[in-house]
Amino acid sequence: SSDERALFLAIGEEVLRAPMNEGRLEAMPAHFASTAPSASGALTTDAQRNLYVCTEEGVVVFDEGADRLLSISTQGVASGVCFGCFGGSTLSTLFIGCDDNSLWALPTKVQGSDASRSFKFLRNIEKQVQAQRHDGW
Asked: pTM for the whole thing?
């Protein structure tokens, strides 16, 4: 989780949650949410404590209470998901990799949980992104 107080696991059609304290499990993982009838896969979180779960249909987004907020459909099976630092200084681009070798970049209004709030860090990322941009891509 974004606050490092929970560990999420994707197993079959289920997402499990285990409470954490200072990097250690406090209890066994328990049911958090279901992705049925689709199997769950890769996971990521955002700074607002939402959980993004890869499925066969795309990505399902749950809030911290396990309520399904939305589904993002993809043409292939979603196999990887992350908020990337390649998305500019806001660190709010959601990247979704699929089994058909496609990569989706979805601008969002939230930052990934790994986003630093440091102005200096964000400025350095923006400089790196500007240096790597190519016209015509």
From this structure: 0.78
